[in-house]
Design brief:
Length: 587
């Protein structure tokens, strides 16, 4: 069973249960199918865990007066096996004296399980992770201390892992990371450890970013780090001061709509921090012999957009879906520039692509939103989106900001000016209340449908791809995007009376795409046109402002709103769609 999850630990004088629950809530974007907390109470180890969200464990299992100064906790996203209370973390050893939480995959867990079973260990879950607590228990028989037993256990593991372990007789937490992130937060008399700084920002501004094989022992305000490969190491303490003022949902019911509405501010936020970097990227791209763009999901769609603009600027570039990158390995060499695009900076497929490219001698530039993320750290240079945390699983403001960054790079390469105010006012127009009210009409048509097709050409096809992803992931309606000219090569067979087709019309491809819309309508299709101008083929017309290269932004924003409203109408929580997680930290 592999997972990508959020973990958090606390050692200090305060109530660690409360602190880790605050942090876990902020880590739910990494997974939210089950949750658990392990803590010391007196001399005992207490484990509370269940299927559900952080509020479920608080309501059902943890009495508000419970207090502990040493705590580990976990929020989970399972990919194989059942989502059950038993499979939730923490996992204990046979005696219930050791508990661990784990993010990642233990690839050799079957071999370890066999080894441990022969020595009489009994397992309660179907997870790969449970072997860790039993392995520590096993090595405690021969090693001198809890730390030494943990070290020996961790060194047996293959795969990717960020692990925290505690034991009933210990006043510290022990941890390690390999290919899964782990950050320490420092404060006087208190120490925090979590999968990312987002969980820790309410508590501290001082962080240590751990490296692969860093083994940590964390006590009250004391952190010892040793690298299992290099021995004693010093890791710098970084001060990161992020304004948490806009951190909550504010007046909105969901993060998704809050983040959609924030798109009117993204231009200012990007320009505020990255002006110089845009020039650096432009020069580097213009002089590189080979340019590759790599990302996953919406970030891959941003790569398609970036590549489209670079092609327009006469620069050859290849967008590659991160999970397929290794198949292109032979094309990468020391003359290559690889631009990695990732909101979280923790997407496993993107990290793997970066590592492959680095081995081949390529230079890595990245566009990331999360400061301190693995992608940022492993790049030769980076541009920060700087648009604040995106909590909703659906990428909205970060997608728009990726597009704006590519637009700025393109303008810089072309030596053209960029009118940020004009773009901002167009975005504001698209976010207006009347637009949202109008969208209810589209929602009413689509809410009972099982399928929707989306077509566009050129930049509009990229919009169709991104729009389809938004509809699918939050409304669970099957949505599929095609280049307008492709429908007649097979998919037209699916069009029946009333089948909805969203048609993205742009100036350059107007005649051809409208003709494709007619082909659909002739077969009974229902046409929803996204266009600056009305056309008689449209059954519903979603008006957007006239646009040039910023077209994709104009076309996608209305569909973000549509997807959000569809999710609400169907009774789904758009922030936490089923089966998904914000940050996909497994391959
Ligand atoms: O953090 P990243 O940008 O690397 O994430 C990539 C994808 O997982 C992400 O864009 C995903 O497709 C979104 N949920 C789409 O809305």
């Amino acid at each position: 069973m592999s997972k990508m999850c959020g973990i958090m630990g606390y050692v200090g004088n305060g109530n660690g249960i409360h602190a880790t629950l605050v942090g876990l809530k902020r880590l739910e974007y990494r997974g939210y199918d089950s949750v658990g907390v392990g803590y010391k109470k007196g001399g005992d180890l207490v484990i509370k865990k269940c299927v559900g969200r952080v509020e479920d464990i608080c309501r059902r299992l943890i009495p508000s007066e419970d207090h502990s100064t040493i705590v580990i906790s976990h929020t989970r996203w399972g990919t194989h096996g059942k989502i059950t209370d038993e499979n939730a973390h923490p996992h204990a050893d046979c005696q219930g004296k050791i508990a661990i939480v784990h993010n990642g995959i233990i690839e050799n867990f079957q071999d370890i399980k066999e080894f441990l079973s022969k020595r009489g260990h009994q397992f309660k879950s179907e997870t790969d992770s449970e072997v860790i607590s039993h392995l520590i228990e096993e090595y405690l028989k021969t090693e001198n201390s809890f730390e030494e037993a943990c070290k020996k256990a961790f060194s047996m593991l293959k795969g990717s892992f960020a692990i925290l372990a505690l034991a009933s007789g210990e006043d510290k937490i022990v941890g390690i990371r390999k290919d899964s992130p782990l950050v320490v937060g420092i404060k006087e008399n208190e120490s925090f450890i979590a999968s990312d700084i987002y969980a820790l920002l309410p508590f501290t501004k001082e962080f240590i970013f751990l490296q692969n094989y860093d083994f940590i022992t964390v006590g009250k305000g004391v952190v010892k780090i040793e690298n299992l490969k290099e021995g004693k190491v010093e890791r710098p303490v970084e001060v990161i001061d992020i304004n948490l003022e806009y951190d909550g949902k504010e007046k909105y019911h969901h993060f998704m709509i809050k983040e959609i509405m924030e798109q009117s501010e993204v231009i200012d936020r990007i320009l505020e921090k990255n002006n110089g970097k845009i020039e650096v990227f432009s020069k580097e791209i213009s002089s590189a012999k080979k340019v590759f763009l790599v990302g996953a999901g919406s970030s891959y769609h941003a790569c398609l957009y970036g590549s489209y603009l670079l092609t327009k600027a006469g620069i050859d570039s290849k967008p590659i879906v991160a999970s397929e990158f290794k198949h292109f390995e032979k094309l990468i060499d020391k003359d290559s520039l690889v631009i990695a695009v990732s909101q979280s900076g923790e997407t496993a497929d993107v990290i793997e692509a970066i590592r492959i490219a680095k081995k081949r001698g390529a230079k890595i530039f990245s566009i990331v939103n999360v400061y301190g993320s693995t992608v940022m750290r492993e790049s030769n240079d980076y541009i920060l989106m700087n648009v604040g945390f995106e909590v909703g699983v659906a990428a909205t403001k970060t997608f728009t900001s990726q597009l704006i960054i590519f637009l700025l790079i393109y303008k810089s390469i072309m030596g053209e000016g960029f009118d940020g105010r004009e773009l901002q006012s167009k975005i504001l127009d698209l976010l207006g209340r009347s637009r949202r009210e109008f969208m209810e009409k589209v929602v009413d048509y689509l809410k009972e449908k099982d399928h929707v097709f989306l077509i566009g050409r050129g930049l509009s096809f990229i919009s169709a791809e991104e729009a389809a992803l938004k509809i699918k992931e939050v409304s669970y309606i099957h949505a599929e995007a095609f280049p307008g000219g492709e429908l007649k090569h097979g998919t037209l067979a699916l069009i029946e009376n009333g089948t909805p087709c969203i048609v993205f019309v742009d100036r350059e491809n107007k005649d051809e795409i409208l003709s494709n819309a007619h082909e659909v309508k002739t077969r009974g299709g229902f046409i929803i046109g996204i266009s600056p101008e009305r056309d008689e083929v449209f059954d519903i017309w979603i008006k957007i402002p006239e646009a040039n290269e910023e077209l994709t932004i104009m076309q996608v924003i209305p569909i973000q709103i549509l997807a959000y409203l569809l999710a609400l109408k169907k009774g789904y929580n758009p922030d936490y769609p089923r089966n998904l997680a914000k940050s996909v930290t497994v391959k």
